[in-house]
């Protein structure tokens, strides 16, 4: 009798993979962050990535990291987590948020107020910055479960010409 596969992705790894896939939509030349919001039945409720607000052309608004605030992306970009919350057609209360980078303090406020109960993240590379310290302080005070993935998920995504494509 054949054995079933045992090295499958866990749910947490699978949804982190979806967050990574969503990040590939980002136009940001330096940082691509993806997020996915999932309910207690493992149903995807929403996804998001970092980008300019609707109507704010990503060809016109700046992507720079340095210079006067109005010349940088920081004044304008909507983070992946906030986009995932705002894009959702359904309430996200009680859900888990998957995000490739630990949320900033502004996203933490939205995550708490939206009622998300668990955050699964991968990178914590800004953990010693004031904004991340503030974020962690609020998320902990709000009783949100914080889980760093032990295994990272690496996607190898490739765009190729569809050999079966026929123009209609
Ligand atoms: Zn943020």
UniProtKB/TrEMBL annotation:
PANTHER family cross-referenced by the UniProt entry: DEOXYCYTIDYLATE DEAMINASE, DEOXYCYTIDYLATE DEAMINASE-RELATED
GO BP annotation list: nucleotide biosynthetic process; pyrimidine nucleotide metabolic process
PROSITE patterns referenced in this protein's UniProt entry, alphabetically: CYT_DCMP_DEAMINASES_1, CYT_DCMP_DEAMINASES_2
Residues where Zn(2+) binds: 79, 104, 107
GO cellular component assignments: cytoplasm
Active-site residues annotated for this sequence: 81
Protein name per Swiss-Prot or TrEMBL: dCMP deaminase family protein
Ranges for domain CMP/dCMP-type deaminase: 10-146
């Amino acid at each position: 009798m054949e054995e079933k596969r045992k090295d499958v992705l866990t749910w947490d790894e699978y949804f982190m993979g979806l967050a990574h896939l969503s990040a590939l939509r980002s136009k940001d030349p330096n940082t691509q962050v993806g997020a996915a919001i999932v309910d207690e039945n493992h149903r995807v409720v929403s996804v998001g990535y970092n980008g300019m607000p609707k109507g704010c052309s990503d060809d016109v608004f700046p992507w720079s990291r340095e210079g006067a605030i109005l010349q940088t992306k920081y004044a304008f970009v909507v983070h992946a987590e906030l986009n995932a919350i705002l894009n959702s057609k359904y309430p996200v209360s009680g859900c888990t948020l998957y995000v490739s980078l630990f949320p900033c303090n502004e996203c933490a406020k939205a995550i708490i107020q939206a009622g998300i109960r668990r955050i699964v993240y991968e990178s914590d590379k800004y953990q010693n910055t004031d904004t991340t310290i503030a974020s962690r302080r609020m998320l902990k005070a709000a009783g949100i479960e914080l889980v760093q993935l032990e295994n990272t998920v690496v996607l190898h995504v490739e765009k190729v010409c569809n050999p079966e494509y026929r123009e209609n």
